Amino acid sequence: MQSSDLPPKSAADNRFGSPENLDVSVDRAPRCRLALLYQPRIHTHSLQMHGAEALLHVHHPGRGFISPSYVENQDPSVVAFMIDRIIADWGTTNGGMEMAIRLPASVLQSAEFISRLRDRLPRHFGGLIIEIDASDVVRNLRSITKLASELQASRIAVSIHDLEDNWPAFSALRVFPFVEITVGHLLIQGAARSPKTRETCHHIVELADGHGARTVAHGIETWADLIMCGDLGFDLSQGPLFAEPMTADALASSCWSKRPDPRPTHRSGKSAGLAERIRQALA
C-alpha cells in the first residue's frame, strides 16, 4: 500500500512532509532506504496479539533489513517518514491495529505536530502510542505529564519507555496520564539473577497497577523469559520469541494476527495457567 492510496484531506495536508523514499548511505551502499517494520506485542497470559511496535530499519541492498542505531529519529524528516508509513500501512484495510512508536520527547512539545497528527489519523485507526524514554520524561516531568494529560481524550497516548531504577520519580504523581510503562530485556534478565532487580520490576508493575496502566516487557527471547514476565506480572510481552520485526503485510497475515486481543483482560492469578498455554503453543 502506498500513501497515495489514502484519501487526501487536501494536496497540502496529505502527508507530514517526508519524501517518498529517504535514502541513506550505509557501508558505501548509497541506495539504502529507511523502512518501518513491525514487531507484535503479545498478551502475556492469553498469548494473543495486542497491537505492535513500529521499529525504524534500513533496507540494505546486500544485507536486507538492518537495525539503524546510527539513524537519528530526532530528525524531523525521519519522524515524518515514520508517521506517514504507519498511516499508509494501517490507516485503511488493516485498520484497528494499535501501534506503538518510539519518538523523541521534542515531538510532544511541538503543538503543530500534535495538531497535525490528530487531524491525520483516520477515525477507525486503532490508536497510536508514543513511547518517550523514561530519562527524558524525568527531565521534563511537569511539561510531558501535562501534554500527556491533554492527549487522553484523543486516539494518541503516551508511554514511559525503558523505565528502570528511576521509577521513584513517578511515584509521587497524583495524575498519571501514561497508558503504559515498558521495561527492557536487561531488566527482565536481571530479575532472574538479582533479588534487587526483581524488586525493581515489582515496584514498576505496582506503580502501573496503581494507576490502571499496562506494563510491557521488551526483548523476550525464551519461554523462560515469558514465564518470568508472567511471574512478575507484566501485561504484554514483545521480542524474538514471538517474531522478529516484519513488514506490515507479513504481520497482517501472521499467525499472531489471526485472533487479535483488542482489550486483553487484566491478569488474574499472575502466571496461573500460563505454563499450560505455552505447552499448547509448543504442541
Structure description:
With 283 residues, the chain is α/β, with parallel strands linked by helices. It contains eleven helices and ten strands. The protein has an eight-stranded mixed beta barrel with strand order 2-3-5-6-7-8-9-10. Strand 9, helix 9 (223-232) and strand 10 (236-237) form a beta-alpha-beta unit. Helix 7 (185-191) packs across helix 8 (195-210). The longest helix is centred in the last third of the chain and has 16 residues, at 195-210. The protein is globular and about 45 Å long.
Features:
single chain, alpha/beta, TIM Barrel, eight-stranded mixed β-barrel, 11 helices
List the topology elements.
Blueprint lengths: L22 E4 L2 E15 L5 E12 L3 E3 L9 H15 L8 E4 L2 H4 L2 H10 L7 E6 H6 L1 H10 L5 E6 L6 H4 L8 E4 L1 H7 L3 H16 L3 E4 L5 H10 L3 E2 L10 H5 L21 H9 L1
Parallel strand pairs: 3-5, 5-6, 6-7, 7-8, 8-9, 9-10
Antiparallel strand pairs: 1-2, 2-3, 2-10, 3-4
**Could you tell me the mean pLDDT?**
78
Q: Using DSSP, what is the number of strands?
A: 10
* Protein structure class: alpha/beta
CATH class: Alpha Beta
Helix content: 25-40%
> Gyration radius, to the nearest Å?
19 Å
The CATH architecture is Alpha-Beta Barrel
H/E element sequence: EEEEHEHHEHHEHEHHEHEHH
The CATH topology = TIM Barrel
Q: Order of strands across the biggest sheet? A: 2-3-5-6-7-8-9-10
Integer count of domains: 1
The helix count comes to 11
